[in-house]
Specification:
heterodimer, A: 421 residues, Formate dehydrogenase/DMSO reductase fold, B: 249 residues, three-stranded mixed beta sheet
Chain lengths: 421, 249
């Protein structure tokens, strides 16, 4: 890797530092620096949170499938998969911090949890998942760590046990395999749970027809199984490259991702069809909002997902095909996650039916935005029933910064840990 | 057990927004934050009727917090910062709230509002944007509003004049007054006497009697939130301000 690696790490470090600076600035000034306001109270942070939860689950599903279902093809890349699960679970938790107004009180979720609310549950499940995937990665790498150690920067190596006899090493290998087998059935349910609970956070809200319903959790799982394996493909390509003996592994991952994307699109358009059929109502209006105002985001989602499916299903044996396909499905899923937010908020829940002689319609009761906007001569309304949300510079800096930070840590860990053969 | 509720008689509401203004002043709300909203139903501008002449309609609908019996905001709050007190008031503990804004997402009435920045900064900005060069409320200076912090019996901070940044706030039914046996400011400040406040569980209270006599409705009843703010629907007005209650005998 050498120079390319250093350059990548340098760029990621700069982006991460900009993100940290933006977060500190936002912490000082308040969330006024974002473009969220009272009528539109969650934005890109929450969309990214859902995205990272998705990518996190994929990794562990892949690596535990080896031990539960005996999918031997996946074995070589298992440590990379479970490490990516850990990194993205941490990313999801980091992503919440800039979104909340009082990050210094976040531990109240553990001191005063409200069992009816799904957020503390989500926090619990995510934390357990992060710990599990870290332990799982360590267990898998244990023999190799004993053999080769963890290489720190500046040429230092720790945890290397050079005096092990081949017999002892073999013993350690058997032990590691046994432990991994025992952990897998515990980890897999959590991989499914983090999605389900995250989806439930949104899907239980009857006041938001874009989310409400039973289909959101399965959609989340399909999205996770699309993005997760694709991320594992990218990570494995960085670490191992397209080795001949890994080709079956990549083929399987590409297939899983492509099939899940198909399932996702099916569930999505199934939902669209049902919403549009009745021609009226809040569910219908939410869909119309998507088709009217957010069609471009939906187009990105559909086009990239379909392109990703086609590429992954056909070109799984070339580097360019795998990279293009994985990136395409991830862009599609990213757009899918972003689209969770605007149609939920711009359909204001308090709608009053107005019945006139010639017409009848539902009128959205405006909400106070939370600040005085405009100037004396060009005042802007304080009460609005539609909020055109575009992430602000600070929001973008923090979002990009978190991504850079986790990529930095991922690459650094890949170098430090003995994941390679 | 006391269970507070409110009736708003839409026949009597003249849309003057006095309730919103008195609420804003008494509860020291920062610029851009309104616990109480009054709008003309169906219209883009307040006080502009909807429809086409001569079929016009102009109904004013004031929206305070509904203090739902089955409040979604209480259910979703991850840390129990929003809770329903025994007397039915849904309150926010400013010292507990972590500012996740899940409750704003859950509330179907849009009454919950977030402190996006420090109130001092907000006031300064508000003055600048509305054309006043001078910052009339310098930091630490006098500001409008009920002067004392208010805590519930178990010591939770539910009203403070200088709002902490990054927490959610909303209508409290003027908990600082209710705890002293005084009606909320909007009830006292309504020039049309459109509001009745009182104990829903006491059959002898004015609110219970009115609810027995008059047909009242609640907003978004289909969501099952069981709001404790009741509305008396407006009757059709004939002529200038007259209300036709039925044919003369």
């Amino acid at each position: 890797m050498g120079r390319k690696y250093d350059l990548a790490m340098g760029i990621l470090a700069v982006l991460a530092l900009i993100g940290v600076a933006a977060f500190i600035y936002q912490f000082q000034k308040g969330l006024i620096l974002t473009n969220m306001r009272n009528p539109f109270s969650w934005g890109i942070y929450i969309a990214m949170w859902a995205f990272y939860v998705g990518t996190a689950a994929g990794g562990l599903v892949v690596s535990s499938a080896i031990n539960i279902f005996g999918v031997k093809q996946l074995k070589p890349i298992a440590p990379v998969a479970s490490l990516s699960a850990f990194i993205f679970a941490v990313a999801a938790m980091i992503m919440i911090l800039p979104d909340i107004g009082r990050p210094e009180r976040v531990f109240y979720m553990f001191i005063y949890p409200n069992p009816k609310s799904l957020l503390p549950w989500d926090f619990l499940v995510l934390s357990v998942y992060a710990v599990l995937s870290a332990v799982y990665t360590y267990v898998q790498l244990q023999p190799k760590i004993a053999e080769r150690g963890i290489s720190l920067p500046f040429g230092k190596t720790i945890m290397k046990k050079g005096d092990l006899t081949p017999a002892e090493l073999e013993n350690l290998r058997v032990k590691s395999e046994r432990r991994a087998k025992a952990l897998a059935p515990i980890a897999l349910p959590f991989a499914i749970l983090i999605h389900t609970v995250t989806a439930w956070v949104l899907a239980t809200q009857l006041s938001r027809p874009w989310w409400y319903g039973g289909l959101l959790a399965p959609t989340f799982i399909a999205a996770a199984l699309t993005a997760g394996p694709a991320v594992v493909i990218l990570a494995s390509l960085v670490v191992y490259g397209l080795r001949e003996d890994l080709k079956p592994t990549y083929r399987l991952l590409a297939k899983v991702s492509a099939f899940s994307a198909v399932a996702l699109l099916f569930m999505y358009y199934n939902d669209f069809f049902i919403r549009q059929w009745w021609d009226a109502g809040r569910e219908y209006d939410a869909l119309m909002l998507v088709l009217r105002d957010y069609l471009h985001i939906h187009a990105v989602e559909a086009v990239f997902l379909i392109a990703g499916i086609v590429i992954l299903a056909k070109k799984y044996d070339t580097v360019s095909g795998l990279v293009a396909g994985s990136i395409a499905v991830n862009v599609g899923i990213l757009a899918h996650r972003y689209l969770l937010i605007p149609p939920a908020y711009n359909l204001i829940p308090l709608r009053v039916p107005v019945v006139m002689a010639g017409e009848s319609f539902e009128w959205q009761y405006p909400i106070a935005v939370g600040e005085v906007r405009g100037t004396l001569l060009n005042p802007e309304p304080v009460f609005v029933s539609y909020w055109n949300y575009i992430p602000s510079a600070v929001e973008m800096a923090i979002t990009v910064g978190v991504f850079a930070l986790i990529s930095f840590v991922f690459l650094a860990l890949m170098k430090a840990l003995p994941v390679r053969e | 057990m006391v269970r507070y509720g409110m009736i708003i008689d839409l026949n009597r509401c003249i849309g003057c927004r006095s309730c919103a203004v008195v609420c804003k002043i008494v509860n020291s709300q920062p610029p851009g934050t309104w616990w109480q909203r009054v709008e003309t139903v169906g219209s883009n501008e307040h006080m502009v009727p909807v429809g086409e002449y001569p079929n016009l309609s102009e109904v004013f609908l004031p929206i305070p917090c509904m203090h739902c019996e089955n409040a979604p905001c209480v259910d979703v709050c991850p840390v129990g910062a929003t809770w329903q007190r025994e007397d039915g008031l849904v309150l926010v503990d400013f010292e507990r709230c972590i500012g996740c804004r899940y409750c704003i997402t859950a509330c179907p009435y849009g009454v919950r509002q977030f402190n996006w920045q420090d109130p001092d900064e907000n006031f300064k900005q508000g003055f600048e944007r509305s054309g006043f060069e001078e910052n009339w409320f310098a930091e630490g200076d006098y500001k409008y509003g009920y002067p004392k912090d208010h805590r519930t019996d178990d010591g939770r901070l539910v009203y403070t004049k200088t709002r902490p940044r990054g927490v959610v706030e909303k209508c409290t039914f003027c908990v600082q007054f209710v705890d002293q046996g005084i009606a909320p400011a909007c009830v006292r400040g309504c020039p049309g006497n459109a509001r009745i406040f009182g104990d829903l569980d006491d059959p002898g209270s004015e609110i219970s009697k009115t609810l027995k006599d008059r047909a009242a409705f609640r907003l978004l009843e289909e969501l099952g939130t069981e709001p404790k703010v009741f509305y008396i629907p407006p009757a059709r007005k004939e002529g200038r301000g007259g209300v036709r209650y039925g044919e003369k005998i």
